[in-house]
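Hi, can you check this record?
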Amino acid sequence: MNKKEQERMEKQAARLAKERKRLEAMSVYEKQYASCLAICGIDEVGRGPLAGPVVAGAVILPRDTEILYLNDSKKLSEKKREALYDEIMEKAVAVGIGMASPARIDEINILQATYEAMRMAIDKLQVRPDLLLNDAVTIPGVEISQVSIVKGDAKSISIAAASIVAKVTRDRMMKEYEEIFPGYDFASNKGYGTKAHIQALKTLGPCVIHRRSFIGNFVK
């Protein structure tokens, strides 16, 4: 092995050691509640957009699992999220996905729709958890013990996994909606209120996946 190759391998080993240390810090809640048999991370994506559903993910990871570069989905590139999504789906003990439609959001408001999506995600798990680690919320109507963690998607590997599952699921849906409802650039903006999206909304009017309770300032 030449000196250049050795230096490259040493740098790679240092990066991996740093990443494992970061993941160790993100596992503090999982270790704190290690007596629980099945810890489930819960997170949602899509509370703020003008269009599309709100989607919740629920993920139970195996004890002491290692998924390198697991993090808050907002801190990851689309390519990295897609790769991690596949790894999570392969390694997870159980994954549940729930969602509330734009019409449901308009009917019961975004907060209640988010809770509903979260309960749906929990119900779809094939393994019943005995503890929920939630990103900054306490979900009403759930009998399972819950721990609310502010910015939990950056502090818990279970919540981070749930955030990635929810984000990738919703992003894929919005790309499909672009094909069905062209002109709003859903594939790019994912339903959020970008300048181009708002202009399209004013020009084309709303489509069926727009949240009527969110777009009153832009259309009459």
Summary: Strands lie at 39-45, 54-60, 94-100, 131-135, 146-149. The two ends are 70 Å apart (CA to CA). Helices lie at 3-26, 28-32, 78-91, 102-108, 110-123, 157-180, 186-189, 195-204. The CA atoms of residues 178 and 186 lie 5 Å apart.
